[in-house]
Amino acid sequence: MIVDSHAHLQIKEFWGSEYEEVVEQTAAAGLVVVNSGVSVKTSREAIELAERYPSFYATVGVAHRDAHVVSEEVVEKLRVMCEQPRVVALGEIGLDYYHMHHPPKVQMRGFVQQLKLAAEIGMPVVIHSREADRDVEAILDRYAVGKVDIVLHCFAGDERMLRWAVERGVYLSISGMITRNPRLEKVVSRAPLESILIETDSPFLTPKGLRGRNKPTNVVYIAKYLARLLDIPQGDVLETSSKNAAKVFRALQPP
Prior knowledge:
Blueprint: E1 3-7, H1 12-15, H2 19-28, E2 32-36, H3 40-52, E3 56-60, H4 72-82, E4 87-96, H5 104-121, E5 125-130, H6 133-143, E6 150-152, H7 159-168, E7 171-174, H8 182-188, E8 196-198, H9 219-230, H10 234-248
Parallel strand pairs: 1-2, 2-3, 3-4, 4-5, 5-6, 6-7, 7-8
Helix pairs in contact: 3-4, 9-10
């Protein structure tokens, strides 16, 4: 089983005319793909896609861009969606101080409300953090560490965050960004393989050397790059990262 731990195949507007072709090609490739919601709408769409294709799964959540809409009503909608058998985590959720769509306090409020839900129902969480690592660490320490499994989606943190994550058993999901960022490459080279998942974040973050929109099949390309970086066989990277994903997202099954 090869797992792309984070993609957005369900959001048709991201893909344009390529949508149906990419979905069918991905389903035929034998990959297990976890499609991540970023709003109530896209979370529902991820579930619908997972119900159509047995190798697709969904996460549900409201990301930083829509943090202002998170309310008790929205949290209850997410709670109901989390009961669906194809839903494997709550996310992506978190903080983004680079694209400051809302003030930090607004983002934090929406983030914490969803973390409380995850802890209550025992659901793993998928975390977005951009230029907000210290606040993300502090909030996760208070509301999630020791309560639920945690994945740092598209990990781009510094060495301090790496140590923080490894000490707490937090997983690092590595994307194609690793092929374009020497600083990140240096940090990730110190990460234990047992902490690593691999994602494409399709259609974003196309690995260096490839063209066009990113696709879930490029997870193998990222694994190859990681294998060179960690000086281990590519097969070991694919096998261990996929086993790690199966530990976190416990419903995953081979296609």
